[in-house]
Design goal:
The two termini are 21 Å apart. The protein has 359 residues and is an alpha/beta fold.
């Protein structure tokens, strides 16, 4: 294990992001501070990986919504994977791998029992049991993004053999796993919606989808009717807006529309009008339901065990897009809103420890 650096780099919020802005370096300042000491019951962790989520944009929006806000001058909030490098806690010895809300910084002080959690912590410190290389799997294939896909496809969407499944933002972190889970559940056809020929080609080349529709250049409704002439059984929506309304025009009887995200409209002001084809929920005896993945935290170990098993069986594949270095964090987060990545978007701050076995 490398020595603890006396300097701690931190991305500090410099200004809030406006409604029509793409998040980037201009909203932050990379500063250096002294690496903190720890007190009894605390651990000092060194950041290895940081995850990204569209919800993080709301953290730095001046308008308060469902998500809590990072204030000006504070370290940007975000979950990640880290290694314990100093400990005054009996259950977290030096060398342990953990995941927690650690923020965009090299080092963080955490109190695993939860007494020191801030309101911006989504979960308390979680020890990673039996970590394996690459650790990016903790953030992606066996992590929060995959858990969202699991809840959307299996728990809420209840995909079963013969279903025609459509996934929006299929080239993203949740979507790329969701497409694979739909296939595992026996879907007869998996249709991915993505922006641009490059992403659509990638979805087919990776074997994630049977059909990939480019919403930027294709007639979405026409392509959906062509790919699913008998209608869509399950739609996992990560986009909202016009895309949701279009898909609702081609629902099968008894279909399930599962709302995982609404990245196209969540930050629009004023709010756009809602879907005009919601009456198809009535005509097709369908349902629409949203979910929040953190309502399922008590079942994450169950989900992870199943996902690992499917990976061992060759049914799941890694499709991570890794940004290198802490300095790349703003660009990585911004890429979620520009289509500048494929698969799960992860920031590698430090290399995986060499003593961790490979998957």
């Amino acid at each position: 294990m490398s020595a603890i650096s006396p300097t701690n780099r931190q991305w500090i919020l410099k200004r809030f992001v406006g409604p029509d802005e793409i998040i980037g370096d201009e909203h932050y300042e990379l500063v250096e501070s002294t690496t903190p000491d720890i007190n009894d019951g605390e651990i000092l962790v060194k950041t290895l990986l940081l995850g990204t989520s569209p919800a993080q944009r709301m953290y730095v929006s001046e308008e308060r919504q469902f998500h809590l806000r990072v204030e000006l001058g504070e370290v940007m909030s975000g979950r990640g994977v880290a290694q314990v490098v100093a400990s005054k806690h009996p259950d977290f010895p030096v060398g342990d791998i953990i995941q927690a809300s650690i923020g965009w910084q090299d080092y963080a002080v955490l109190k695993p029992d939860g007494d020191g959690d801030t309101d911006q912590n989504v979960r308390t410190v979680q020890k990673v049991e039996n970590p394996v290389q690459p650790l990016t799997t903790i953030m992606g294939l066996f992590g929060q993004l995959a858990f969202s896909a699991y809840v959307g496809i299996i728990e809420k969407g209840q995909v079963q053999k013969g279903d025609v499944v459509v996934v929006s933002s299929a080239g993203g972190g949740v979507g790329s796993v969701a497409c694979q889970l739909a296939r595992i559940q026996g879907a007869s056809k998996v249709i991915g919606i993505a922006g641009g020929k490059t992403k659509c080609d990638w979805l087919i080349e990776q074997g994630l989808c049977d059909v990939a529709i480019d919403y930027k250049n294709d007639d979405l409704l026409e392509k959906l009717k062509e790919a699913a002439p008998d209608g869509i059984n399950v739609y996992l929506d990560n986009v909202g807006g016009d895309m949701l309304d279009t898909v609702m025009q081609n629902l099968a009887i008894g279909s399930r529309v599962i709302i995982c995200g609404m990245i196209s409209t969540e930050y629009m002001r004023p709010r756009p009008p809602g879907p005009t084809h919601y009456f198809n929920l009535l005509y097709q005896r369908s349902r629409m339901e949203g979910f929040f993945v953190f309502d399922y935290t008590d079942r994450w170990p169950e989900f992870e065990a199943q996902l690992r098993q499917w990976y061992k069986e060759g049914k799941l594949k890694l499709v991570d897009d890794v940004f290198e270095g802490l300095e790349s964090a703003p660009a990585a987060l911004g890429s979620l809103f520009t289509g500048g990545h494929t698969g799960g978007c992860v920031i590698r701050v430090n290399d995986d420890p060499e003593d961790i076995p490979k998957i």
